[in-house]
C-alpha cells in the first residue's frame, strides 16, 4: 500500500515540477518589475473603469488568498474604491502566471486559458455589484499620500535599484519568499492527490454524484472555509478529475477555495463591511457555478480528451532525464523551503521562551490586522527593522501581532506597519 501511494505522489510531483519552476520564475519577474504605486493610481474612483482595471491587474499576479489581502488593503488605503478592491480580491487569488503555467502542464490549454478568463469576468462582476453599496474613496490623508514602501527592500524613501539587484531579487522572491508561502500547502496537496489516486476507485464521482450541480455544490461547501492555494491545489483537482469529477466541479473547487477562507472573510467584513462581504460571496459562489457549467460545455464541444488525454499522458510514469533533473532541482528547493520554515518556527519558540525567562528592555505587543502567511510576516518584520529605536522584533502570524523591543516611537511603528500593507488594530 505505502509503495503504491508513494509512486502516485512521486508521479504527481515529477509532472508538476517543471511547470512550477517556470511559473515561480514568472512570479518573481512580476513581483520585481510591477510598480504598486502605478496600480494604485489606476484604481481610484467608484467607476466601472477602475473595476475593470483592478481585475486586469489582478489576473496575472501570483498571489493566493493569504497574499492578496494585505495588497488589496494597501491599495484601498491608497484610495482604491471598494468596487476596485473587491474586483482585485476576486480575480487575483483564483489565478496567476504560476498557476496558469501549472494548469497548462497538468490539465491542458482549455482549462488553463479558461481559468484567467473566468477570474476576469467574476472579478469585474463582483466589483460592479459592490458599487451601489460602497462609498467613494476618501481624500488621501498625509500619511496615505506617501509612496508605498519599496517591495524589494521596504525602504520608504524614494530610490531605485540596479538591474543586477532586481535580477537577483527575482529569484530570491520566487524560490524563497513566494515558495515559502506555498511549499507546505503544495506538499500537502501533492500528498493528498497521491492518496486519492491510490484509494479512490476510478469513476467514483460519476457513480456516486452523477448530477453536475450537486457535485459543484459539494465542492463549494468543502472549499469555502478552507485555505486553498490556486497553484498548490492543482494536483488535488487532477486526482479528483481522474476519479470522475467533472471539470466544472474541479473549477468550482479551485476558484471558490482560492478566493475564500475564514480569516479572509472576517477581515473583509471588519474593514469593508458585512454588506460588501455578502455581495462578494454571492457573486463568487453563483458565478463559479455558472462558469463551471460553461467549462463543462466547452469540454463537450472539444471532447474530454482535451483534459483526460493530457492527464493520462502526464501520469503515465514515463519520465525523461530532463524531467527527472528538473524534479530533483525543485525537490531540493522544496526541502530547503520547508527546512527554512521549520527553523523559523523553532527560532520563534526559542525566542518566546527566552523572553519569558529573562526580564529585558521595554517591549510592546502590537496587534496587526490582515496577516495570514509567512510573506506577510516577513514584510512587517523587514519594515519594522527599518524603524529607529527598534532593538528586536518578532512577528507572529498565528497571534496576528508583532513583539517589538526598544524605544521606537509608536507613531513610526504604526507607519511602518501600514507601509508594509497592514493595519494596526
Describe the fold and architecture.
- 70% of the residues lie in helices and 5% in strands.
- The chain has 425 residues and is mainly alpha-helical.
- The protein folds into two domains: 2-333, no CATH class; 359-424, Alpha-Beta Plaits, CATH 3.30.70.
- A four-stranded antiparallel β-sheet has the order 2-3-1-4.
- Strand 2 and strand 3 form a beta hairpin.
- It is globular, with a radius of gyration of 22 Å.
- The termini are far apart.
- Residues 138-148 have low confidence and may be disordered.
Structure at a glance:
The protein has 425 residues and is mainly alpha-helical. It has helices spanning 2-33, 36-41, 48-58, 65-77, 82-94, 97-107, 109-130, 142-145, 163-199, 204-208, 212-223, 234-242, 247-259, 262-272, 274-302, 305-314, 321-357, 374-384, 410-419; strands at residues 363-369, 390-396, 401-406, 423-424. It has two domains: 2-333, no CATH class; 359-424, 2-Layer Sandwich (Alpha-Beta Plaits).
Topology:
Blueprint: H1 2-33, H2 36-41, H3 48-58, H4 65-77, H5 82-94, H6 97-107, H7 109-130, H8 142-145, H9 163-199, H10 204-208, H11 212-223, H12 234-242, H13 247-259, H14 262-272, H15 274-302, H16 305-314, H17 321-357, E1 363-369, H18 374-384, E2 390-396, E3 401-406, H19 410-419, E4 423-424
Antiparallel strand pairs: 1-3, 1-4, 2-3
Helix pairs in contact: 1-6, 1-9, 1-17, 3-5, 3-7, 4-5, 5-7, 5-13, 6-7, 7-15, 9-12, 9-17, 11-13, 11-15, 12-13, 13-15, 14-15
